[in-house]
Amino acid sequence: MEFDNFITHSIDLFMGKPKSGKTLIAGSYPKPLLYVSVGNDGGGRVLMRGYPDDCRNGNIKVKNLKNDVPVVVGKSLKINKTSIEKLADLLYDLRQPGQPQFKTIVIDTVGALQDDYKSALEMQKGNKLSQQEWGEVSSMMMNIKETMKRFSEDTGTIFVWCSHTSEQELYETSGLNKEIRIIPDLTIKTGIKYMKDASNIFYCCRKTTIEPGGKRDVKFLTYVGPHPLMDTGTRDLLLEHGAFVENFTYTKWQQMVNAGTLDATNVEVPQEDGETNKIADDGEGE
Question: N or C: which end of the chain has fewer CB within 10 A?
């Protein structure tokens, strides 16, 4: 009897507001790396500035995916292929003999795949989507998720999903009370399923840090581990409490995994009375 590997797929999810450092972190992942920009929102420019040598020597390659230009068919508009369909074609092509092999594939952003497909359906229909048509959008998102997951399983490729965030009033873990939670910029059910398949979920943001001597500075930080108001969490590192980490990269993440601990940053947190406090080893005060 043969048994299976403990690790099947490798997918990291980075969520945060625009310009919170997601793309720059994604570019630190193992090379060669394919950066898939959905909607072409300028992430390629970030990579060129952050990793000029890798971009010049071909260690980072870029594919820009967006919906085809609509054409008139009869009395309606039709889009031949959407970005989500183009991504499926791309992953199929990469499986063929003679195609380049990548250690990492970045999708920036997964929410843009959903938005593009929704826009295409609305354009073809001429008005907002019905509940049944939203089901079609969800089905397409589930299909491409499974395609990426299977690609990672079969090839050993790391996928990095980048997502913007939204705030939703959801039931907390016990199911008794509602609370505002920071979640990926997807429909709730789709977002939950994407988070379920992610190996690690990180939150990128800007925070006021407390430097040695009490000096304060605003820096890009990444929240790692469990948080009461965000569905962040890690399977590669078992943590009871999360923390903000400065200068997060793939290499630094692997170092923390090997050490079994986080390299936490002191973060200033506003209190209700107007005073401030600092946290270093947990995220309870965000």
Answer: N
Shared domain check, 169 and 83 = yes
Best CA proximity match to 198, nearest among 235, 166, 172 = 235
pTM across the whole model: 0.88
Considering the domain architecture, whether residues 212 and 182 belong to the same structural domain is answered as no
Residues 191 and 61 in one domain: yes
Question: What's phi and psi for 116, nearest 5 deg?
Answer: -65, -45
How far apart are alpha carbons 163 and 182 in whole angstroms? 12
| Distance in angstroms (rounded) separating the CA atoms of residues 84 and 241 | 36
Tell me how far apart the alpha carbons of residues 226 and 233 are, in angstroms, rounded to a whole number.
5
Please tell me the total count of domains within the chain: 2
Tell me the C-alpha distance between 142 and 192, whole Å.
11
Is residue 185 within 8 Å of residue 20, measured between CB atoms? no
Output the tens digit of pLDDT for each of the chain's 286 residues: 888 888 889 999 999 999 899 999 999 999 999 999 998 777 899 999 999 999 999 999 999 999 999 888 777 788 899 999 999 999 999 999 999 999 999 999 999 999 999 999 998 877 888 888 899 999 999 999 999 999 999 999 999 999 999 887 666 655 566 667 788 989 888 999 999 999 999 999 988 887 777 788 888 999 999 988 888 999 999 999 999 999 999 999 999 999 999 999 888 755 444 444 554 444 333 3
Using the 8-state DSSP alphabet, how is residue 110 labeled?
A: H
Backbone phi and psi for residue 225, each to the nearest 5 degrees, phi listed first:
105, 180
Q: How many Å apart are CA 13 and CA 162, to the nearest integer? A: 6
Smallest Cα–Cα separation from 63: which of 96, 19, 9, 108? 108
